[in-house]
Amino acid sequence: MREVLDTVVATLGGQERPGQVAMAEAVARAMSQRRHLLVQAGTGTGKSLGYLVPALLHGDRVVVATATLALQHQLVERDLPALVEAVKGQPGCEDASFAVLKGRSNYACLHRVREGVPDDQGALLDAASLPEGSLGAEVLALREWVEDESSSGGTGERDHAPRHTDRVWRQVSVSHRECLGAARCPYGQECFAELARERAQRSRVVVTNHSLLAIDAIEGIPMIPTYDTVVVDEAHELVARVTQAATDELSASEVDRTSRRAARLVEGDEADDLGDAGEALLDALLTIEPGRVDRPPQALGDALELVRDAARALVSALPKEPAIGSGEVPDPGAAQAKGWAQELFATAERMAAGSDRDVLWVSERDRVRGGRSLHVAPLEVAMPMRHGLLADKTAVLTSATLRLGGDFDAVATSLGLWPRERVTADTPVDASSDDGAEDDAQPWEALDVGSPFDYRAQSILYVARHLPQPGRDGLTQRHLDEIAELVDAADGRTLGLFSSRRAAEAAAEHVREVLPHLTTLAQGEAQLSELARQFVGDPHTNLFGTLSLWQGLDVPGETCQLVIIDRVPFPRPDDPLMSARQRAADQRGGNGFMQVAATHAALLLAQGSGRLIRTTTDKGVVACLDPRLVTARYGSFLRASLPPMWQTEDPALVRQALRRLAGA
Prior knowledge:
Elements: H1 2-11, H2 18-33, E1 36-40, H3 47-57, E2 62-66, H4 69-86, E3 98-100, H5 110-115, E4 117-118, E5 124-125, H6 134-152, H7 166-169, H8 192-201, E6 205-209, H9 210-217, E7 229-232, H10 238-245, E8 248-251, H11 252-262, H12 270-285, E9 291-292, H13 298-317, H14 332-353, E10 358-363, E11 373-378, H15 382-390, E12 394-399, H16 409-415, E13 444-448, H17 455-458, E14 459-463, H18 477-490, E15 494-497, H19 501-514, E16 519-522, H20 528-537, E17 541-545, H21 547-550, E18 562-565, H22 576-587, H23 592-609, E19 620-624, H24 628-631, H25 635-640, E20 646-648, H26 651-662
Helix pairs in contact: 2-3, 3-4, 9-10, 11-12, 11-14, 12-13, 13-14, 18-19, 18-26, 22-23
Organism: Nocardioides aurantiacus
Family: Belongs to the helicase family. DinG subfamily.
EC number: 5.6.2.3
């Protein structure tokens, strides 16, 4: 394995990195011994090759799951093609095939494009029926692109499509429930999604996303070809993505839409009954304040049962699909209506069950589009992951931020790996079968391969201890003045990470007023990609925003020499899911605040701070304007989660350092 890694690195013009070598050797050992592994690999380690080389040499199919499209594109379009080219002729690399696999709705549907989209009454709308204006033009442009993809052997993936909105993409795609099925669809042989599955079936490495992995391994819906090993990159995101994949929503508008779609397709009153159930749901939701619902009122419970029963009756009443091989093409309107009704039934049944393993809450929506909606999410995903993924597969979980508070226990526990099961590289592989071991023990090893960066020499962590503790009213004048002074010293070059859109906009407005010679951008003023392009293009530019800037933004060089964090990013106290998880941890005898809120904050702080140093030549300051980072008891836990930067609380010293970096 080491020889192949050395060859690949040399072929790609790289240099040996001790952390990458240590990671590759640990990953290869974990795969061969079928033992779970957590690897923290700092930015610049080259962790993608650290797991891709062992994956290609493993012998059996390996699935690589990512959280972001950016990393997925990097793997499929850059790292894997270069790796395949580099390993040609190497022993053990005879099969270096790879493929990317996504959920069905990520691929264009040829049947929908060529036959039309059902309207609210289920009748097909062709191209001539599209509304005039930008929507119709975008749909037509997408349809032309789809046909070009089909004729040229393209993949039909949404990520490669011309710019479009979610609403437009729905005109050329279907969900897995709406799909007619390859055996019944007249375009099944050309289907982009089916062709992607066939490519994955023939490949040694399959690149997918966290959500599809969760659906396949945890929900038990076969989406990925058989595999025994999975590498989860960006593993710090896995719990959130698995939770998201297992979260369902129900609203009166969705019930009404399904009722109207099915009305022409059934002879009885089943569609009308579903519509009546939707009205009952709307009435029940309007009596409940937005927020977590611990004990559903009787009216809500009754409404959920009405929706459940009416949806089930409607599914039974809708036309049966023609038999495979009969030559008959299913009615796409009926297929879509049945898919929607089945989804309503499953969601309403889950909500009506009132499981203590789920969290239920109401959110406010635009009343014009349906008023309030009801949501349900798993209280925790550790046990489903433990039994659905870790029990059957070998998992390698890697990220730049897995050690929170200085160790791996918090992240491991959230993933379904217990601290008492942790082993070392020297622990015998069969140790879990010793007397006294749990029958379902999942031994796991952890490794921090460090970073090629000298954080103490390259970066400063500045905590503004002299500022007041953040309150609910947002940034104070003292906070705004501090931000302007820091930005002025840096002469721009600032990425501002804020806890709310309101705070980001207030800071941007103040900096524009005080420092008009600098360009200050705020999230929401343009597409994020455009804002990032402007930020990178001019060092005298500032970019202020919220959560989507905390992770994934890669801006090396003098573009970013100051990262401002306005406050410790604890979850909102009224966050239904986080508050429920914190309460559950307390009830189990743990410390809910530390296990949930502090861990959440530590992860975001580590990710946000990681925006600063992206290469060995980068230098700069992370400025936290929240004194709790050094004054609160939990501050040491949070600081231990950050890169090992040199720390200070002296504002004059920091401004001097920033001016020196800016060349002033």
